Amino acid sequence: MSAYEKLLPDTLDGSKPFWDACRRHELTIQECLECGHRRWPIGPACTHCLSTDFSWVGVAGTGEVWSWITYHQAFNSAWAADVPYNVALIRMDEGHTMISNIVGVTPDEIRIGQRVEVLFEDVTDEASVPKFRPVKP
Amino acid sequence: MNQTPSTNLRGRGAIVGVGRTAMGNLQGSTALGLGLEALRLAIEDAGISKDEIDGILTHPGTTSREGANHYLRFSEAAGIDPRYAASKSMGGSTAGALVQEAIMAIDAGLATTVACVFGDAARTGGQKFNSPSGDPGLSWGIWGMFGPQANSAMGARRHMAQYGTTSEQLGAVSVTFREHAQNNPDAVMYGKTITLEDHQKSRMVVEPFHLLDCCLISDGGVAIIVTSAERAKDLKHPPVLVAGMGQGYTARKNEREDWWYLPHQKNVLESAFAMAGVGPEDIDVAQFYDNFTFSVLLWLEHGGFCQPGESGPFVAEGNLKMGSRLPSNTHGGSLSDAYMQGWTHIVEGVRQVRGEAGDRQVPGAETCLTTGRGMALNTANALVLTR
Ligand SMILES: [Zn+2]
User: Do residues A50 and A99 both lie within one domain?
Assistant: First the structure.
């Protein structure tokens, strides 16, 4: 297996627990212990009440395709072999949106409003990246 | 959070000098050199001496090496020790934000005459505009999201799904602005016409965007000199007053499902119109920030020039052309004049309101709207320019 050349997550800025959970194939989010708000992206304080007390909680990992785009040109050489590939904006059932890829489909099979669920790709021995696939009807 | 927009600054600031260098592929140019040349041209246009400038506000170019300290190096290189100075990096909304800051500083008595300056050697400096989207803490490059097209393309796709907007309608923007560039000998795309078929046949970059949905990459410099309306009366050109202005930001990308629709732009235009005491029906000519064709569609909806969802048919009907309801991007815009991160839009607005736009003058234009937007779509502002 050739070396993984794509950008890997960095675990600075308090994101290590999130990526550790991905490694266990669990999708998590920070939940405020004062007001209960779940924030995304990862941040040091609650985006509602600025409390710094939080816990990592598991989320369902389901949502819908809010929008998606198809790269016909590689802006980064590590992605050259993947062209054409999609990048999607997923609206999670918890209300926030995430950027990811939809796997197991060709670009013309993707629809806005399509139900999707998370899966994890173990891209290196240390890192797993959350991606999405259509939910089987 | 709705607030009553201020009218305190209506018409208190004026743009009295504009300068734009040659633009395009300028071998051997530097960001700093282009900014200084633009400053010289703007000083000449204003008919003032360099010594009268006591404020320097700069926008570091993508190839400027000074980062947040750019204002200091620029001032040093210009031989100016300003009373008031700063740099801002807000991408395509920086130009308008600096003009607004200049007006506020002058009104507050912190400066009398402020030069707002941008220079960039993006074209020859090897700027590929391919950096990862997202933020350093959570880069979207992990999922292959690179380059500025991505955010706008995401919005365009959803607009298409929600309202039936088509690629041909986006193409109408591209073709219209290219037509306008044919009246602008300084435009990079002067002498190079395109048809809707050319737009449709141009290669896909980030779908739904074809190559001809995307702006140029250019070297160049722009400077804009601002002073009080009072002082402006004695200067060379009839002053162009800033009657209205607004700023807005949708900083929260992932906690707002409407981020793609750029809700802050509506606030920006409402604020600018309210300060100026005008509505969309009063705008004679507009210069909309057009890094991508789709950007123009959202401005039209947010400004009330058409209903939400109706901007596609609005542009396809030809409403942005010279001689139509809302002549827009009369210089060719970022799509066909040059990509100066929205700076040329203000220069063109000033020339239209002065009535000195030559072959591309909108007859009797008295009120011009200029807009800017940048970063992950989440900074924006607008100016209403009047005589
Ligand atoms: Zn909270």
Answer: no
Closest to B158 (Cβ–Cβ): which among A66, A72, A101? A66
Q: What is the CA radius of gyration of chain B?
A: 19
Model confidence pLDDT, tens digit, residues B49-105: 999 999 999 999 999 999 889 999 999 999 999 999 999 999 999 999 999 999 999
Residue B71 sits in a domain whose CATH number is: 3.40.47.10
Measured from the Cβ of residue B115, the count of other Cβ atoms closer than 10 Å reads: 34
Torsion sign over Cα A99, A105, A110, A115: negative
Query: What share of residues in chain A are helix, strand, coil (percent, to 5)?
Result: 10, 35, 50
CB contact under 8 A, A85 and B138: no
Nearest to B211 by CA among B169, B261, B174: B174
Q: Are residues A14 and A40 in the same domain?
A: yes
Residue A87 sits in a domain of what CATH number? 2.40.50
Question: How big is the A-B interface in CB pairs under 8 Å?
Answer: 116
* Mean predicted lDDT score pLDDT of chain B: 96
Is residue A117 located within the same domain as residue A131? yes
Cα A75 to Cα A101, B149, B277, B326: the distances in Å are 16, 10, 45, 36
The residues, ordered by sequence, that sit 6+ positions from B201 with a Cβ below 8 Å of its Cβ are: none
Which of B155, B183, B149, B171 has the alpha carbon at shortest distance from B327? B183
Tokens of B186: 């300084």
CB contact under 8 A, B141 and A7: yes
Shared domain check, A78 and A28 = no
Mean pLDDT of B274-299: 98
The answer for B 286-305 residues in CB contact with A (under 8 A) is none
Residue B325 C-alpha, separation from nearest chain A C-alpha, in angstroms: 32
ipTM of the complex: 0.97
Q: What is the mean pLDDT of residues B276-297?
A: 98
Are residues A46 and A71 located together in one domain of the fold? no
CA dist B49 to A25, B27, B44, Å? 66, 30, 8
Question: How many angstroms separate the first and last alpha carbons of chain A?
Answer: 34
Query: The domain containing residue A135 runs over which residues?
Result: 60-137
Are residue A44 and residue A105 in the same domain, yes or no? no
Please tell me whether residues A97 and A42 are part of one structural domain: no
Which of B321, B240, B178, B217 is CA-nearest to residue B46? Answer: B240
Q: Which chain A residues have a beta carbon less than 8 Å from that of B155? A: 67
Q: How many domains does chain B have?
A: 1
